[in-house]
Design a protein that fits this description.
Blueprint lengths: L3 E11 L7 E2 L6 E10 L10 E14 L3 E8 L2 E9 L7 E10 L4 E11 L5 E16 L1
Antiparallel strand pairs: 1-9, 2-9, 3-8, 4-7, 4-9, 5-6, 5-8
Organism: Paenibacillus mellifer
Protein name: Exosporium protein C
């Protein structure tokens, strides 16, 4: 059965390394990008929708071994999280790639990309690139 693209949106905060300098906090996290899609309730293909979310985040470990938690929130609810440990001595720079698929409610869906450092004894920052996209597919 053919699929229908219901909506697509993307945010490119920066397409390059060293395009930003965003400290990754230990408590609470920081939103680094947002994106939204509209899943039209009047479109019959929307009933079986899937929203595909993709993100690329460039990070740098500044001290010790940061544990970077990447979260995706929709409508105030966490729908995805993944943890990455960076070694300051070995791979102080790195790209984090995220790929997640969900069945979303109908209407406008707003997604937030958030990072947080889980290690109190380390520091890290987002340096770019930062790319976040959402594609709603139905049918």
């Amino acid at each position: 059965m053919a699929k229908t693209i219901l909506d697509y949106n993307s945010t490119v905060v920066t397409p390059v390394t060293n395009g930003v300098n965003i400290p990754i906090p230990v408590v609470g996290g920081v939103q680094i990008a947002a994106v939204s899609v509209y899943i039209d309730p009047a479109n019959p293909a929307s009933a079986t929708n899937r929203v595909e979310l993709k993100a690329t985040i460039g990070v740098e470990a500044l001290s010790d071994t940061p544990n970077v938690l990447v979260r995706i929130w929709r409508a105030g609810t966490e729908i995805f999280y993944g943890l990455v440990e960076l070694e300051d001595a070995f791979n102080d720079w790195g790209l984090i790639s995220v790929h997640f698929v969900e069945h979303a409610p109908l209407g406008v869906q707003n997604y937030q990309l958030i990072v947080e450092n889980q290690d109190n004894n380390s520091t890290a920052r987002v340096v770019g690139p930062i790319v976040f996209s959402a594609m709603a597919i139905g049918g």
